[in-house]
């Protein structure tokens, strides 16, 4: 009991330190040209502070992993909250390793905010320690999930470096296809931020809208009752064939199409709509405030870095992450599937998406060998690759039903 | 066939880009950096680049192209993603027995899109002929790509060229040229360079005028080793269609029952089944489960028998116990290559009906217990004192047929109907009664005997998945080889550094297949150590 409480505190501390570290990293990068400063000295000084904040945060998060593992009796990788928090741990770990190799302050300015977003995203899911259901009771839970998360964490650093490359090299004085797509990527990041903001705000406000659907289901006691859908966020879209039994802050504007089956399909659509809306609003506000493309706002912070170095870091991270991902998300997964179900491969949606990620990065590694694919094109691929990982983690878990669907938002 | 003769006198095979002996680019004018041939096979001739006339050459060349391989990968990737939009047929949640039902399921559940999805065959995507064709094409590409490159690579790696033509050195991304430092000899310089590089883990090849340092050569074999791993993996997958290599059966066994496992000489007995739930005291944290429970284990205690008479047709099975123990999720029972997995359960199913026979005319005197085993109803039960009970008729899943006669829908006792006859007073009195849907219907209006319904016997039926997959060791082995290959290829890098003297100048060049910055650091270290007056030209080779 105490262990779990301690682990919760440690994770909060880690979160706080990552936020601080991100801020200091941003200061290190943007404050270079403040009046009366030596840019190089400024960057080194603040970069070092930010780095050590990240290190202490990482130590706290290691403490979280250890205490939660002891307190819960199993590795903290058994539900969506634990997995996302563990993935975050791996991203920071990968960052620390890559930083030791290249000693480039600016990597932190991109990876740490990514770490903050990921950890904030994990907080959205129920954080209780639940005992393991029979199918998860295997040491492969520890081996398969942790290795897969580590691979994805390293690939995330490849994404961050690729994104930096694009921000560094895409010319911002004219509007091109590249600038537009770069803005789209940044807007998607803001949508994730918007989702986290909305979800954590409304979870506290208790402004629930409850729908009752014209369908029956067995409840926990084995009796039949009408299916209900509970929205924490205000309802834009109502489930098909339903009536409101508890009015929320706003009335739904339209009904979900009837093929969106399952009690939570419409709620997930609603959540997604809110994420897109808040993301777009955040994006619009930032654009109005700065009167510049977001890419152009960030560009000065990566000014003066050798783009080839960024390209190299992205490629190295992916070439290190790829074997780890293969081992964790495919090979160990196959061995466990063989052990649990007697088949190493079953074309379950999650398995298919792990294969898609693997095929995509295989294509990336082959293309790297071709002329003309080093630089911008491969940076775009590292960004798309991470988007596919996010689809695998988020969309497949939450929207597509399958063996890996965890409970949650 | 013409051979290409280089100015150094070496005769090269057709298709060679860089002279095998001196490294000078053949037949091309190198004006800009980007004109310099690709260094991947060090300019060795490759079959696919050399022969293009015959049909077989064209097929070979098509499959040996990395671009084509990437194209195939991308098509597989997109097709796989489309296959997850709606569930595959095997994962449809409700039972759909016939093909029209399957079609209707997709239309009813997903509307127009579902109809299209079904119509295009995406409901069985991963076993469709075109998806399998794509996988086979990828396999072919793997084999041909590897064969096309492995021989030139072998030649390139085992014949490291020492005295390179200047244009070869200049063609490298890392190149520097400068005058000989004052007061130092060539031998001295080479010795110092060799010493520095050896400390960094390089292997040194040298003559009195040239030096080549190399490390991580084995890393170049990584891609081919991982391709071999993948090919073994694919062979393993194909092997499963050989008879006797793969089997997938499902048996339902109720408690106490012994059933034959189809297509094997084995029988399995379900001794007992139990589900355990986590108790609150075991949970690390207080949870609000809203009255629900979390299962802790699904377990069947089973015995596996071998039928010794399996080879004798018509012989009575002679069962010998071969294995005995629990089957739990994640811990299948294993015997030779046969695996039994705990994979389903129907709990609290009707096993037997229990009644108390009473003598209504004698103060409701209890005459004894009647048990009707619903899987094996007894023909006759003797209750003693001259009272016998006969089972006349039994319908496990009762339904009134269209012809007005009772019938059964399935042979599972979901809604049993039993007709029995009671013979009392040593057979001098008979009365018939029927049990159906929880009530007793008697033949006479004023019967002598009555039935009191007692709690029925409830049993658990366990679902066991029986599998055999002899290809699994090969599949694991292939994966293992693949991992070794990718680790070799991606965690290590192949680096080569040349130091040469031409006229009065020192020439230094470096090549690596990845991690240019690592190579750059080592070359910088070398220049610093040997105090060579060199600056490296910055070139991009995108």
Short description:
Chain A is mainly α.
General form of chain B: elongated
Quote the distance from N terminus to C terminus of chain A: 25 Å
SS-based class of chain A: mainly alpha
The quaternary organization reads as heterodimer
> Low-confidence parts of chain B lasting 5 or more residues at pLDDT below 50?
none
Shape of chain A: globular
pLDDT average of chain A, as an integer?
A: 86
Q: What's the Cα radius of gyration of chain B?
A: 40 Å
Greatest contact between two chains? A-B, 69 and 71 residues
The fraction of residues assigned to DSSP E strands of chain A is 5-15%
What is the count of helical runs of chain B?
A: 10
What is the H-and-E element order of chain A? Answer: HHHHHHEEEEEHHHHH
Tell me how many strands of chain A there are. Answer: 5
Beta fraction of chain B: 25-35%
How would you characterize the largest beta sheet of chain B?
5 strands, antiparallel
Subcellular location (chain B): Membrane
Domain ResB-like (chain B): 66-524
Main location (chain B): membrane
Transmembrane segments (chain B): 68-86, 129-151, 221-239, 474-492
Topology:
The complex is a heterodimer of chains A (409) and B (542).
Chain A: H1 2-30, H2 39-72, H3 80-102, H4 105-123, H5 139-169, H6 177-205, E1 209-218, E2 224-231, E3 237-238, E4 242-246, E5 254-255, H7 265-290, H8 294-302, H9 307-341, H10 349-367, H11 376-398
Parallel strand pairs in A: 3-5
Antiparallel strand pairs in A: 1-2, 1-4
Helix pairs in contact in A: 1-2, 1-4, 2-3, 2-4, 3-4, 3-5, 4-5, 4-6, 5-9, 5-11, 6-7, 9-10, 9-11, 10-11
Chain B: E1 4-5, E2 11-12, H1 47-50, H2 55-64, H3 66-82, H4 99-119, H5 129-158, H6 166-171, E3 174-179, H7 186-199, E4 203-206, E5 210-215, H8 222-239, E6 246-254, E7 258-260, E8 266-277, E9 295-307, E10 319-328, E11 333-335, E12 338-359, E13 365-373, E14 380-384, E15 387-395, E16 398-400, E17 406-408, E18 417-424, E19 429-436, E20 439-442, E21 449-469, H9 472-491, E22 495-502, E23 505-512, H10 516-530
Antiparallel strand pairs in B: 1-2, 3-23, 4-5, 5-22, 6-21, 7-8, 8-9, 9-10, 11-12, 12-13, 12-21, 14-15, 15-18, 16-17, 18-19, 19-20, 22-23
Helix pairs in contact in B: 3-5, 5-8, 7-10, 8-9
